[in-house]
From TrEMBL:
<dbReference type="GO" id="GO:0006637">
    <property type="term" value="P:acyl-CoA metabolic process"/>
</dbReference>
<dbReference type="InterPro" id="IPR029069">
    <property type="entry name" value="HotDog_dom_sf"/>
</dbReference>
<protein>
    <submittedName>
        <fullName>Acyl-CoA thioesterase</fullName>
    </submittedName>
</protein>
<dbReference type="GO" id="GO:0005737">
    <property type="term" value="C:cytoplasm"/>
</dbReference>
<dbReference type="InterPro" id="IPR006683">
    <property type="entry name" value="Thioestr_dom"/>
</dbReference>
<dbReference type="Pfam" id="PF03061">
    <property type="entry name" value="4HBT"/>
</dbReference>
<dbReference type="GO" id="GO:0052816">
    <property type="term" value="F:long-chain fatty acyl-CoA hydrolase activity"/>
</dbReference>
<comment type="similarity">
    <text>Belongs to the acyl coenzyme A hydrolase family.</text>
</comment>
<dbReference type="InterPro" id="IPR033120">
    <property type="entry name" value="HOTDOG_ACOT"/>
</dbReference>
<dbReference type="InterPro" id="IPR040170">
    <property type="entry name" value="Cytosol_ACT"/>
</dbReference>
<keyword id="KW-0378">Hydrolase</keyword>
Amino acid sequence: MIVKKKSAESYTVMNELVLPNDTNTLGNLMGGRLMYWMDICAGMAAQKHCNRIVVTASVDNVSFKQPIKLGDSVMIEGKVTRAFNTSVEVRLDVWAQNLPAGTKIKSNEAYFTFVALESNGQPVPVPELVPESEKEVALYDGALRRRQLRLILGGKMEPADAHELKALFMASQED
Ligand SMILES: CC(C)(COP(=O)(O)OP(=O)(O)OC[C@H]1O[C@@H](n2cnc3c(N)ncnc32)[C@H](O)[C@@H]1OP(=O)(O)O)[C@@H](O)C(=O)NCCC(=O)NCCS
């Protein structure tokens, strides 16, 4: 069994065209529809890394910076940034493209956490992720702090145990 994998091995890209049934009454893509597509893209990236059935455990804060319009193409790129024991963090970058105009703008970024499951529904260990580029190392390092924050918010960790997250705040106070 392969126990170490690269981030690139989970790279997933998904394209969708915004059609009338995807929009609100202003003709903008509905946030819930975008989240649905993001969950699918992130889930595929997590499955590529884990080679297991995965379930969404949590989604970090997502803000929609600007509307995506009817007729735009949405491109979602996802890859695993870090693997823990039975869970992985997936980063998504979402772009809105106006294909006739040839424009492309960043819509948002998000982090999803997936847990790999055995056929009996029990969490199962996942392969380790080895970051390669400088950017991958930065995402890998940050993943530990993001994990601590989401576990505190999810009621799964005591704030006092989030040492790396606390160190970040202490460092910024010293600046
Ligand atoms: C996700 C789920 C499997 C976790 O089960 P659990 O009993 O809490 O399991 P554990 O406490 O053993 O945790 C398993 C992993 O989940 C992670 N986890 C649990 N809750 C989490 C949360 N809110 N955010 C991020 N990770 C979380 C743990 O950190 C652990 O990861 P690790 O092994 O890498 O450290 C379970 O809550 C579940 O099945 N949820 C429903 C998933 C689902 O149906 N998603 C679709 C939404 S409808």
